[in-house]
Amino acid sequence: MPSNVEIKAKVSDGTRLAEKAAQLSQSEGTIIRQHDTFFNCSRGRLKLRDLMNDSGQLIFYERPDTDGPKLSRYSISQTSDPPSLRAVLSDALGIKGEVRKERRLFLIGQTRVHLDSVEGLGDYMELEVVMRPGQTVEEGQQVAEDLMEQLGVSQESLVTGAYMDLILQGRKET
Question: What's the CATH number for 3-173?
């Protein structure tokens, strides 16, 4: 199963972070609109990512809910009919919740840098260090920590869990 090392952080100055990411990636990034539907499942997380262009991805992943860099294992299946697949999975498993976001993607070395504007949550940044064959988790974590420093992301801004978790926590508090 492919894996990556991930971190997620709350962003206070998205413009500044985008400028730094653009410099490091030597690109303006790619805008991607996503509608993620999370389904109930017995282990890990299962989500259908509708890319809003008649394509999508069914993604299963497992990762610990801790601050800082963490290893995530995942598998992905492409789909050309997200609405139909959503209906089938909804009937079979039930929907846990939904996340809508606009993502600006930058590629820096082996890392995918996501600047996300998440409906109902605000602005966040994710780093996904795509692990190379034979690369250790510690090496992936070091790549993530080095990039955090270059981007000016502080340890204090790191968050735990997925956007879906943050949305569900918000609902419980209100």
Answer: 2.40.320.10
Evaluate whether 20 touches 93 at the Cβ level (below 8 Å): no
Phi, psi of 59 (to 5 degrees): -125, 125
pLDDT tens digits along 113-167: 999 999 999 999 999 999 999 999 899 999 999 999 999 999 999 998 889 999 9
What would the DSSP string read from start to end of 105-146?
EEEETTEEEEEEEETTTEEEEEEEEEPPTT--HHHHHHHHHH
Average pLDDT of the chain?
93
- Domain spans in the chain, listed from the N-terminal domain onward: 3-173
User: What pLDDT, on the 0 to 100 scale, is given for residue 171?
Assistant: 61
Q: What spatial distance separates the first Cα and last Cα of the chain, rounded to whole Å?
A: 38
Phi/psi at 160 (5° precision): -100, 150
Instruction: Quote the pLDDT of residue 95.
Output: 98
Contact 8, 125 (CB under 8 A): yes
